Amino acid sequence: MRYIPNTDADCRQMLDAIGVRSVEALFADIPAAVRLKRPLRIPPALSEADLTRHIRGLAAKNADADRYSTFLGAGCYNHFSPAIIGHLISRGEFLTAYTPYQPEISQGTLQVMYEYQSLICQLTGMEVSNASMYEGASATAEAILMAHRVTGRNEVVVMRSVHPEYRQVTRTYAQQIDLTFLEVGFTPAGTADLRAAKAALSEKSACLVVQNPNFFGAVEDLAELAGAAHAVGALLVVAVPEPVSLGLLRPPGECGADIVAGEGQALGVPMSFGGPYLGVFATQEKYMRQMPGRLVGATLDREGRTGYVLTLATREQHIRREKATSNICTSEALIALIATIYMETLGKNGLREVALQNLRKAAFAKERLARVRGCRLRFSGPTFNEFVVQVKRKPADLLKGLLRKQIIGGLDLGQFYPELKDCLLVCVTEQHSREEVEALARAMGGGR
Amino acid sequence: MSGETVGTRGLVFNEPLIFEQGSPGRVGYSLPTSDVREVKPDRLIPKKLLRDDIPGFPEVSEVDVVRHFTRMSQWNYGIDLGFYPLGSCTMKYNPRLNEDMARLPGFARAHPYQPEAVSQGALQLLWELEQYLAEICGMDRVSLQPSAGAHGELTGIMLIRAYHMSRGNPRKKILIPDSAHGTNPASSAVCGYQIVPVKSGPRGVVEPQAVAEVMDDEVAGIMVTNPNTLGIFEDHILEIAKIVHGKGGQVYCDGANLNAFVGIARPGDMGIDVIQLNVHKTFSTPHGGGGPGAGPVAMKRHLAPFMPVPTVEKKGKAFTLNYKLPKSIGKVRSFFGSFGVLVRAYTYIRTLGPTGLRRAAEVAVINANYILSRLKGTYHLPYDRFCMHECVFDDGFQVPDNVKTLDIAKRLMDYGFHPPTIYFPLIVHGALMIEPTETESKETLDQFIAAMKAIAKEAKEGGDVVRAAPHNPRVSRMDETRAARQPNLRWRPPGA
To answer: Of A285, B40, B79, B475, whose CA is between 20 and 30 Å from A410?
Structure first.
């Protein structure tokens, strides 16, 4: 076995040194009644070459964004990712290190995390960011638990234009401690219904949860929503599943957000059939000690040199146990590394340019699809790189037809919103050429 | 330090924060050419919802970025560099084949919402992985959704709570032995449970009597780590399970230490109802400096109706996602889980097969006992008995010379080793928890043993060199009090 260096002879020598006859003696504590008396029923070992062939075969059965023209977004985005990312994250010093508990020999991971926290603050306009969480939906759930801790209140007002899976995860978490959920609808513009939000908010509300751009791709007026939440003493939680939008959009921190919970996948991370992704979590300084997750801080060593350490650990489970701000331990350091390399490589101008391209190409597609016979735009509000198209044909049939042409035409919204059962959510990024959009329009029914 | 040691000093570089580098207009990227009309953004989105600039974002070239990260990487210790005996973390070699497989375009470039008809390979892999993990654990179903070990614990406790709710009462308490991981009480608390600690006995294991004394019909269940954090197998597990089940409770096993007995025994055969697996420990996926991991949860049939959705089912020859579980707890994260990490675990299991997996457990246990027997006498062993996959010493023999566990840990760095887990488990004062794993050779273990003995000798001879350690890394001990008292968690432009 190529991953296990010790041979039978090595093991023999070691057993002699231990003073036992056989390895069986070392397992004597396991009661005989529960010992497995047969080999595990899993397939026999495969050589590297045979296994590679087998797994390549499995991978080939899936559509991928290189062979298919895909217009899916909805929380997972097909963005261009520079080649250097794969090379840099493959360095064993990053890939094969544990959580940086020993700072003297973990300064690489720690400085990366400090830069990551700084970049997330700059991007979101918030004052503090943690060093990463699992992914966007559970980060949003943690944000709601934090709002409950900060305010001591038990009601949560959530916009229905927040990603359905984020709402579902949030409910799963909140049910455990009996928080009450109030859901608020959307306007014909596809944006949050401010009047209904105001009606739902009260002095019982811990927070108002809104997504920007929302699940329909629409850009929200966060400042108005923040005003409504703050008027009753509730926090504003902003979920950001598509952070590339922050290359152009006014950051939530400037609009009165108290917590930003986001998904970092769009920042150079592979779509990878849904994970691993990156939970973004940022807040204002006054709530710093209520935050979940790891934090990295700058300090000095004995000689006065600058260095970095994990800090404010008294919030965390390994010190506080059941009184911790969260149970999270392992987070997503390597994915945060991807996002850090992505943000630094694109930088100030690059991220703005990508965001602009997304906006313009999606605007082009919006205009083009609106001209297709049997298609119309469902909402009237401004959008970033996603929008909702209402279609005459049954979406499932339409999508099936497109698939035969190697086009994955978007998401059938009926599965999440019964009232939108004749609608598709379409995403267009910098990866799409004008020709691909034209091909989609032609395949959907032509038009001028 | 006498003679040649593995650790030495080499040329490393100072590397400032990226924010202190670059110049306006410098670029590191190349984007697709725009082939649509260049509309001004405020024609599409109201100006008040837009920003002009991202203040502070860097402007650097591609070369700057590559050098920046390469230099920082050199300040890290990783398994690829040497022995990493971090107890309870199972720092085994991370095979590169796993990485290549996870990066195949059919996986890495696949969207989670693409139609099932064109996701059959990914779904097959998930379905097969569930079968393998169920067989390894002796369980009926496995949810692959949780993102990490602690997330798996949380999901497991949610399952237990949902099970009790379905019988009319969620109950109030969870029993947790004092040797548990810190995440166990935290995960239970997130579900609103009160924690009732259970003291372990003089042999380092939980005694059935101690469980019986606190077990009542308001206890939802017990969370046992097996082997426990002393590296000792909880040999009363069958009796404990009987006591807990007798009062209608559930038995949760923290599976972080499963590497000790894969193929030798199965949690499902020990009366355990639910267990999480840390694939970034037992199944060789890389830790990446603290994630991503994956924490699948394996369970007995009676908990399966409450599983997170969707599950992957096989219908004839096709694989399909099932969202129709009316009693499901819901979802614990978006989509299906850390798919890329699960591809790595699948690759590992198929590489080792049943014989290789069992061999891994055996060699992991031999390696740990070899260290235990060779260091016994030089370091104090609080529980003098054989161990499973890890052994726990303390600084009892060094404290009289004013050398503590922290000093020993820091001095090991100079010799070229990552320190063991220190000051954990909490029930051993000044603990040094050593887990070698099966992927280390006898020669490496001998070098480590020699370093540990050399440090013990240095401690006896005055200990200054140990107390001032580490000497070889680029930085020395950090002022952690300063970091916590004057938090500096982000870069700000000078003068801001």
So the answer is: B40
| Residue ranges making up the domain that contains A262 | 84-342
A298 and A381 in a single domain? The answer is no
Cα–Cα distance between B234 and B232 in angstroms, integer?
A: 6
Q: Where are the domains of chain B?
A: 98-351
Residue A16, domain member (yes or no): no
With 0-12 / 13-18 / 19 or more C-beta atoms within 10 angstroms meaning exposed / middle / buried, residue B473 is buried
- Confidence bin at B495 (pLDDT 50/70/90): confident
d(CA B12, CA A169): 45
Residue type, B63: V
Over residues A407-420, mean pLDDT = 97
Question: Using one digit for the tens of pLDDT, what is the confidence trace for A93-125?
Answer: 999 999 999 999 999 999 999 999 999 999 999
A62/B110 CB distance under 8 A: yes
CB contact under 8 A, B149 and A330: yes
Kindly list the residues from chain B whose CB atom is less than 8 angstroms away from the CB atom of residue A270: 103, 108-109, 340
3-state secondary structure of B365: helix
Taking every pair of C-alpha atoms in chain B, what is the biggest distance, in angstroms?
Answer: 78
CB B347 within 8 Å of CB B101:
yes
B411: pLDDT strictly greater than 60: yes
Q: Which residue has the tokens 């150079």?
A: A268
Its CATH class, for the domain covering B98-351, is alpha beta
Task: Give the integer Cα–Cα distance in Å for B120 and B318.
Answer: 7
| Helical ranges in B74-203 per DSSP H | 96-102, 105-108, 120-137, 149-166, 183-190
| Among B117, B48, B483, B193, CA closest to A295 | B483
CATH of the domain at A270: 3.40.640.10
* DSSP one-letter code for A318: H
Q: Best interface-test mutation with B: which of A53, A80, A105, A310 has the largest number of B CBs within 10 A?
A: A105
- B275/B254 Cα distance (integer angstroms): 6
Strands B297-299 and B311-315: unpaired
A·B CB contacts under 8 A: 696
pLDDT in tens, B180-208: 888 899 999 999 999 999 999 999 999 99
With CA atoms as reference, the chain B residue closest to A119 would be B57
Taking only the tens place, the pLDDT of each residue in A340-351 is: 999 999 999 999
Residue among A15, A146, A303, A330 with most chain B CBs within 10 A, to mutate: A330
Average pLDDT, integer, range B461-483:
97
Rounded-to-integer distance, Cα A110 and Cα A113, Å? 5
